[in-house]
Amino acid sequence: PSLHRQRHDFVVDFVRKNNPKKVVDLGCAECSLLQKLRFYRHIELLAGVDINGAKLSKKKHGLAPIATDYLQPPLHQLCVQLFQGSVTQKDARFRGFDLVTSIELIEHLPLDDLYQFSEVVFGYMAPQMVIITTPNSEFNRLFPGMSGFRHSDHKFEWTRVEFQSWSRNVCLEYGYNAEFTGVGQAPQGHEESIGFCTQIGVFHRLPMNRDGHMLADNAEDHFPYTLLYSVTY
Ligand code: SAM
């Protein structure tokens, strides 16, 4: 399977094991991960956010229930919502989620925005679990003739040490722990020295961080994201 597919399969697997009820995919682009997640019956709210409204709109109708969805007994209600907005902004509708995913997003953020992203995701949204994927630059030496980054819009590509030390700082600051894995195996014998093609951090909120001030409603709540699409099954 393609790397794109392997990253999404990793999330689907994680969802199957951890049963989150409210999930948001940040930088969801054309919603292909949401497409897969809508089949998990314990999910009640499935949201997607992207700064690019045109991308979101392209395939949004694929998220509507298909005729056979109505034939199954209504075991649960699923609500799917797509928002145009930037992960550098705090929107009160996204606090208190169980799982936030950010698949190949952070490397598109200038460093100032990346700093905002940590504050928004870990400090403000403060979900129970976060999955972040990003390229592992150590793997790039296996791409013949490649110079620079894997994609012209990337602002950086990190080694494992760089990603893990950024992650550890975020954990210390906001009260999470992190584990690291990846998808896209290096050739046999190079697994250790090169690592995975895509690196993945899985973050869990620490118990003492459970009743953060951030979950209380407050008069200064803002709702900067624009709801583009909403469907209830
Ligand atoms: N997550 C997608 C997937 O797995 O198929 C691919 C993500 S794509 C490589 C990066 C996405 O991040 C783009 O759709 C881009 O519009 C979005 N993006 C970039 N900066 C953003 C920001 N500040 N806030 C929200 N989305 C952003």
For the record, the CATH architecture stands as: 3-Layer(aba) Sandwich
Helix content: 25-40%
Q: What is the assigned CATH homologous superfamily?
A: Vaccinia Virus protein VP39
The DSSP helix count reads 6
Percent of residues in beta strands: 15-25%
Give an overview of the whole structure:
The protein is of the alpha/beta class. It has a single domain, classed as Rossmann fold (3-Layer(aba) Sandwich), CATH 3.40.50. Helix content is 27%, strand content 22%. It has helices at 3-18, 32-37, 53-58, 111-125, 160-174, 191-194; strands at residues 22-26, 45-50, 79-84, 99-103, 129-135, 176-183, 198-205, 226-232. Strands 6-7-5-4-1-2-3-8 form an eight-stranded mixed β-sheet. Helix 4 links the parallel strand 4 and strand 5 (129-135). It is globular and about 50 Å long. The chain starts with a helix and ends with a strand. Bound molecules: S-adenosylmethionine.
Short key terms for the protein model shown above:
single chain; 233 residues; alpha/beta; Rossmann fold; 8-stranded mixed beta sheet; 27% helix; globular; binds S-adenosylmethionine
Brief summary:
With 233 residues, this protein is α/β, with parallel strands linked by helices. It has a single domain (3-232), classed as 3-Layer(aba) Sandwich (Rossmann fold), CATH 3.40.50. It is 27% helix and 22% strand.
Fold blueprint:
Layout: H1 3-18, E1 22-26, H2 32-37, E2 45-50, H3 53-58, E3 79-84, E4 99-103, H4 111-125, E5 129-135, H5 160-174, E6 176-183, H6 191-194, E7 198-205, E8 226-232
Parallel strand pairs: 1-2, 1-4, 2-3, 4-5
Antiparallel strand pairs: 3-8, 5-7, 6-7
